[in-house]
Amino acid sequence: MAIFSHFILAVLLMALSACGFSSGFSGVGNITSLDSAKTECQSGVAEILIGDGFMEILCGCTEAQGTIFPSPGNLSCHLRNPTSTILFLYSGTVLKHRILSVGNPTFLSSPISDPMSVSPYPVHRALVSQSGSIFAFQDSYSGMVGQIFTPPY
């Protein structure tokens, strides 16, 4: 089991390094988050951390990096580019999560991220590409919500 855990960690780190992510965790009360100062988004990419009871903007939004949205979330991310890749990162979770696109327009919803499963799902990639739109989403397990705004807004 330890070998499998190390394999999953290695896969997660490889996936995150492709997006300009480097390691770094910090804690806010009982919330464990990634150090936003150690994330660098490529142009056209935004990274949002999904945790147990909070969401955090890591990079790629006009809102300040490291902004934490405790439950119920109400995350707002104003993108710099109308066509962007959104990376939802599940890190430090013990609960299940699933990001569902709600309303119209939509993006590809995620599979279930279950950290207790044999194959946890650590990163979900979604593409938004409609100018001047609001893409709403909800974590179907926690009920946390957020909105992604594409320019011009």
Can you walk me through this structure?
It is a single chain. The protein is mostly beta strands and 153 residues long. The protein has 1 helix and 11 strands, in the order αβββββββββββ. A 5-stranded mixed sheet has the order 5-4-3-7-9, covered by helices on one side. Strands 6-11-10-8 form a 4-stranded mixed sheet, with no helix packed on it. A two-stranded antiparallel ribbon has the order 1-2.
Secondary-structure element order, N to C: HEEEEEEEEEEE
End-to-end Cα distance: 48 Å
Structural class: mainly beta
Oligomer: single chain
Q: Beta-strand level of the residues, as a percent range?
A: 35-45%
Rg, alpha carbons: 15 Å
Low-confidence stretches: 1-38
How are the strands of the largest sheet arranged? 5-4-3-7-9
Which sheet architecture does the biggest sheet show?
A: 5 strands, mixed
Question: What are the salient characteristics of this protein?
Answer:
153 residues, mainly beta, 1 helix, disordered N terminus
